Amino acid sequence: MQLLSSLLFAQLPSLIANLTSPTAASTVTATAPAMATHTFTLPPLPYEYNALEPHISEQIMKLHHDKHHQAYVTNLNAATASQSEAFKNNDVKAEIALQSAIKFHGGGHINHSLFWPSLCPSSSPCSSPSSAPSFVAAIESQYGSLDTFKDAYNKLLMGIQGSGWGWIVKRNGRIEMEVTKDQDPITTGEVVLGVDMWEHAYYLQYWNDKAAYIKGVWEVINWETAEKRWGGKKVGDVRV
Ligand SMILES: *[C@@H]1O[C@H](CO)[C@@H](O)[C@H](O)[C@H]1NC(C)=O
Ligand SMILES: [Fe+2]
């Protein structure tokens, strides 16, 4: 059971990626362990709830992690359990009906699992770009300077309409910035950093001042994590 659930866990990003592709989706249906009970769990925060103060409040972190992320995990577990049932019964209509729930809650679980280790206390060395020598070298060679890179990312984050995420992804050895597209989680390339721009991520502290939230986020970016991910190590990736 343990093995089955970790198998399914490993397949989650591709399961989600394949939801829109009929050919790939049928492959997944054929190979998925039909009766597995998969239990996804909420990863603990890698720091205290108040560790990101004053930039992100304890209240936000508690709600965001314990309520929002937990809800994605709970709903994902419910949807995948129903899906197992549907697989078992060869009920393709039910399987199809569950896809959007799995995509949404699975996407939320993936995104938030990547987000927590993208941040760290501003008093700690991990929040300094000097903790990311090779990533910063790549930034400088591609953008000219760290400031130009930050400006570009700020613009991208500020431009997100409604709820969304801004990602920094390593693809073919290059840095790419990407915003939410059609609810698809990032499934190609490796996420280096991600910033949650949903209102629940900042509203209680920053109200509608997105720019101030983004400024705060820069103070708590985890450059150590970025460096590890840039070097090919997975941090907070649900496939781990
Ligand atoms: C997760 O991130 C992807 C990529 O930005 C986005 O399309 C999707 O809407 C996000 N899902 C949730 C629930 O935040
Ligand atoms: Fe969130």
Automatic annotation (TrEMBL):
Its EC number is 1.15.1.1. Residues 39-119 form the Manganese/iron superoxide dismutase N-terminal domain. It catalyses: 2 superoxide + 2 H(+) = H2O2 + O2. Residues 135-229 form the Manganese/iron superoxide dismutase C-terminal domain. It is found in: Mitochondrion matrix. Destroys radicals which are normally produced within the cells and which are toxic to biological systems. Destroys superoxide anion radicals which are normally produced within the cells and which are toxic to biological systems. Homotetramer. Belongs to the iron/manganese superoxide dismutase family. This is Superoxide dismutase.
